[in-house]
């Protein structure tokens, strides 16, 4: 409402994080919020927050078994984190590898659309 596009982009990512913690998250909506956040933050060149959004997308695509999209978002996030000198935050966000593999939380039958989804026309007004 205040016209602060950076705050709007961050709020979209936070809203996606909140939705993803519900008992039965609406994963398609979570993805759309993150993609919208990505587009808004790209426009305002908010690179640290854009890197955080890419990392959130990577985690979503990892869980959904969408490896190609997860790898794409991972490299975009890590490139930005390293370029901005935010390596410690990246390491903290990613955590440490597990010594013994465990069953991952793969989201079955979730129709995700991918991070390269074109921006809908109504988002141009933001």
Name its key features:
mainly alpha, 126 residues
3D structure, described in words:
- By secondary structure, the protein is an all-alpha fold.
- The protein has 5 helices and no strands.
- It has helices spanning 5-20, 27-43, 47-63, 67-83, 87-94.
- Helix 1 runs antiparallel to helix 2, helix 2 (27-43) packs antiparallel against helix 3 (47-63) and helix 3 (47-63) runs antiparallel to helix 4.
Question: Gyration radius, to the nearest Å?
Answer: 15 Å
Sequence of secondary-structure elements: HHHHH
Mean pLDDT figure? 81
Shape: globular
Report, as a whole number of angstroms, the end-to-end distance: 10 Å
What structural class do you assign from the helix and strand content? mainly alpha
Range of helix content: 55-70%
Number of helices: 5
Q: Describe the main β-sheet briefly.
A: none
Proportion in β-strands: under 5%
Low-confidence stretches: 97-103
Count all strands and give the number: 0
Give the topology:
Blueprint: H1 5-20, H2 27-43, H3 47-63, H4 67-83, H5 87-94
